[in-house]
Amino acid sequence: MRYTVNDIFNNIPSDYVIFKNDKYKYNLNLIGIRTIDRESDTFNDLLYVIYRYNDKWYALEYDITTDPGLIYRKKPLNINGTAVVLPGQYRGLWKLGKHKGKYTALVQKNPCTVVRDNNRDTILDCDIPLHANVMNISRGGIIFTTYLDNEKRVVFNTETGIFGINCHRSGRGVTEYVKRYSAGCIVFADNDAFDEEFIPICKDAASIFGNSFTFTLLDERNFK
Fold first, then answer.
1. I need a labelling partner for 179 at 20 to 30 A (CA). Which of 57, 76, 190, 196 fits?
2. What is the DSSP secondary structure assignment for residue 181, as one 8-state letter?
3. Which residue range(s) make up the domain with 144?
4. Are the C-beta atoms of 129 and 158 separated by less than 8 Å?
5. In angstroms, rounded to a whole number, what is the distance separating the alpha carbons of residues 123 and 114?
6. Could you tell me the strand order of the sheet in which 82-85 lies?
7. Alpha carbon 48 to chain centroid distance?
């Protein structure tokens, strides 16, 4: 395992919620880490499923992507660019449902914030400028945020809303390249791990704590 529970919790902002109720199993903390490795089209990120039971922490680690495949970066489905989930904590982001109506996955039910990467290259552009003027516009249930420099030039755009950002699997067995499996979703590389371990745990969790799953996405470059 790349990171211990303590490693992860030590890098979670103090205003984020950590679920610690250990009376029952599977009070889940679903924590993604966008790693320093930003190579295009690979499952180079991590998802940790962490829970506490009988005064002991348990953690499972999975290889995932938090970035869209190269196909969708070069040919975005949205005119504003391909969605890339911005690091943050999204309370009740997902529920158990059907991904594209086909198989059980975690499907989006509450808003998250995405960056729109629209320069159609292989480089992931998802870093908000440290110093910028911010302008918000709400339209059609989506909050559009524009970041402007001192000359009022647009330097960055984000959108907050419901975009179908699901957590699902890729192909058969273990998939090497992301390709069309993600246009912004959180996607597992290992199909069997998703179907046979992750989803059953989520079902057990939903039966106890309700069908609602918070997702926390961290950026490894900010780790202490």
1. 196
2. G
3. 5-222
4. no
5. 16
6. 82-85, 112-117, 154-161, 142-148, 133-139
7. 11
